[in-house]
């Protein structure tokens, strides 16, 4: 496991908003995001369960895929465009003895989502867990800088995709299945330079709560919850923010550092497994100690 000193951020050059997904996207990020905790030992919490993870090729999604593999899940990883990253995650998942299927495409496209779910069902026959994790963000100092195209893109990736995914997988979800949505600390305290992103993350919280009480969902005993990350060190951070911002990243929370992707993974394991059998409509905050919902 990385020491606290090694967890501190030393930004190098990276092109803004390019690939933010393990191999090609992290080569210019120092230190590389840590997606696996070698001390984490699985105990079969997800044995033989089929889990679909959007944005599962790096960062939080990649860390969740690795943890799920250690817990015995069969994985379907949906990713946008980074073939190297997806291949690296699939390779590690298989090294851990788990099955993995990767599917390339845009989860903000309803037609792609339907085709992807068909492939997953053809491979595995059913679905037990859906992790809605894909997301993107773009800095804008003023609301006037947010173009209609950017607004549409951010909402399609961050929240429309969740509607598309749930609609497509619902007929194939086993009784007692779990849905986990990735929201953000910005849903609760906002972000003055991530207006559209914060709005989508707030929408995800409301979507999670509303979906958890939907009668069709309850009729199949499906639990719906969320995870709200705080400052997590993923390739998306240097791809989004200035060097000055990145130098300060994670310094405004009580733990005084950014979190690593692997530190999020156990929250997803808990919400995906039967350990959380009496938990639905809730959001777990993994944010270094910032109190945002008290």
From TrEMBL:
Ranges for region Disordered: 1-34
Gene Ontology MF terms: oxidoreductase activity, acting on CH-OH group of donors
UniProt entry keywords in alphabetical sequence: Oxidoreductase
InterPro entries named in the record: NAD(P)-bd_dom_sf, Sc_DH/Rdtase_CS, SDR_fam
Highest taxon of the lineage: Bacteria
GO process terms (BP): bile acid metabolic process
Gene3D superfamilies in the record: NAD(P)-binding Rossmann-like Domain
Family per record: Belongs to the short-chain dehydrogenases/reductases (SDR) family.
UniProt protein name: KR domain-containing protein
């Amino acid at each position: 496991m990385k020491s606290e000193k090694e967890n501190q951020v030393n930004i190098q050059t990276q092109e803004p908003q390019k690939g933010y997904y393990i191999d090609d996207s992290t080569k210019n990020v120092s230190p590389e995001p840590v997606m696996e905790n070698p001390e984490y030992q699985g105990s079969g919490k997800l044995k033989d369960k089929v889990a679909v993870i959007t944005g599962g090729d790096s960062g939080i999604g990649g860390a969740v895929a690795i943890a799920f593999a250690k817990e015995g899940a069969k994985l379907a990883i949906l990713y946008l465009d980074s073939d190297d990253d997806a291949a690296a995650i699939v390779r590690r998942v298989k090294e851990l003895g788990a099955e993995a299927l990767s599917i390339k495409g845009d989860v903000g496209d309803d037609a792609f989502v339907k085709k992807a779910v068909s492939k997953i069902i053809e491979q595995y026959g059913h679905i037990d867990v859906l992790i809605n994790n894909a997301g993107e963000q773009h800095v804008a100092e003023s609301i006037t800088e947010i173009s209609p195209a950017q607004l549409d893109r951010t909402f399609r990736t961050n929240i429309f995709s969740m509607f598309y995914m749930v609609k497509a997988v619902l007929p194939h979800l086993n009784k007692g299945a779990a849905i986990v949505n990735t929201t953000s600390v910005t849903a609760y305290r906002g972000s003055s330079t991530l207006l559209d992103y914060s709005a989508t993350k707030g929408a995800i919280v409301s979507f999670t709560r509303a979906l958890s009480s939907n009668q069709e969902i309850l009729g199949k005993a499906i639990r719906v919850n969320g995870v709200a990350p705080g400052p997590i060190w993923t390739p998306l951070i240097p791809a989004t923010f200035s060097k000055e911002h990145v130098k300060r990243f994670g310094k405004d929370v009580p733990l005084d550092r950014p979190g690593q992707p692997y530190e999020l993974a156990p929250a997803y394991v808990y919400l995906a497994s039967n350990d959380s059998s009496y938990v639905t409509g809730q959001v777990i905050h993994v944010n270094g100690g910032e109190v945002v919902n008290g």
